[in-house]
Design goal:
The chain is α/β, with parallel strands linked by helices and about 290 residues long. The protein contains ten helices and 14 strands. The longest helix is centred in the middle third of the chain and has 14 residues.
Length: about 290
């Protein structure tokens, strides 16, 4: 299964272009989608999910035009939007049965499928409580469950780990890893470590354009030799930030261990070069494009 995106654009008016001339080939596995706010990630995912119609360009799933034939992807699609809403008076079973009916799902195996999904997102014990009493993280987990109801072959997750505690984030990553062998999974997140731990390939967007698409290894290679750490006195940190892009700091007594990008200039004295991460490469790429 493959999703081919060619010269895709979404323009709302003469002043606002959300996605501009984007081309991307997505195969089975997990594609991590990164980009700053307003980069066009959610708009791209809405077009793939056939919720928004492109202004131009093509979207083909296995050679079938999903803009002209939206049902060709909808029947194999699982989608968790960023602004996912629930019916607060329904419990988890009732809500998932309602979503299943909307998707045309039924039969003897439906209740068993719901039981398995509730177990996979750790909601079995709370399944009969009204969803309106759930925490934000629990609502997010029921959103993940509804996206998996129809055993989809194309999965789109927009900020799926928002509100999840560390244990649930690990559970989600394991769930996605199990699904990735047989499905196309597109996952957008501001938590770069989630993308780093799960994605086979990474696409980075900025201002509606695709600035890179490659394996994690190849993207991280672009940051090699440019990431350093140095131990600074507390009083020197602000001045240091005027010369270098600081990524992270950790206080140690009266000093600050500072991780930074050296972009074009020599590394600061007494610095140590450190191994680059996906987050390092993301920061470099989005600040130089």
């Amino acid at each position: 299964m493959a999703l081919s995106i060619t010269n895709l654009s979404k323009q709302y008016n003469a002043q606002k272009t959300a996605v501009s001339n984007l081309s991307l080939q997505i195969n089975k596995g997990v594609l991590g989608l990164l980009g700053p706010n307003g980069a066009g990630k959610s708009t791209l995912m809405k077009m793939i999910a056939t919720i928004s119609i492109p202004s131009s360009g093509s979207l083909l799933l296995e050679g079938i035009d999903i803009v002209q034939n939206p049902n060709s992807i909808r029947k194999v699609l699982g989608y968790l939007p960023q602004d996912f809403g629930v019916y607060p008076n329904l419990n988890a079973y009732e809500f998932l049965e309602y979503i299943a009916a909307m998707k045309g799902l039924g039969g003897k195996g439906l209740r068993q499928r719901i039981d398995l999904l509730l177990e996979s997102v750790n909601l079995t014990a709370d399944a009969k409580r009204p969803i309106g009493t759930y925490s934000g993280g629990m609502k997010q987990r029921i959103g993940i469950a509804q996206a998996l109801l129809n055993d989809p072959k194309v999965l789109i997750f927009d900020e799926p780990t928002v509100g999840l505690d560390p244990e649930e984030r690990v559970r989600f990553r394991q769930l996605i890893a199990d699904l990735a062998q047989d499905s196309i999974i597109i996952l957008s997140s501001h938590i770069v470590s989630d993308i780093e731990s799960i994605a086979d390939e990474v696409a980075i967007m900025q201002e509606g354009k695709l600035i890179t698409h490659a394996s994690q290894y190849d993207i991280i290679k672009q940051a090699e030799g440019r990431i350093f750490e140095v131990l600074l006195d507390n009083n020197d940190l602000n001045a240091f930030k005027h010369h270098y892009k600081v990524i992270d700091t950790a206080r140690q007594a009266d000093q600050v261990r500072t991780r930074y990008i050296s972009t074009g200039q020599a590394a600061a004295p007494l610095s140590t070069q450190v191994t680059a991460t996906l987050e390092d490469a993301y920061l470099i790429l989005t600040q130089t494009n």
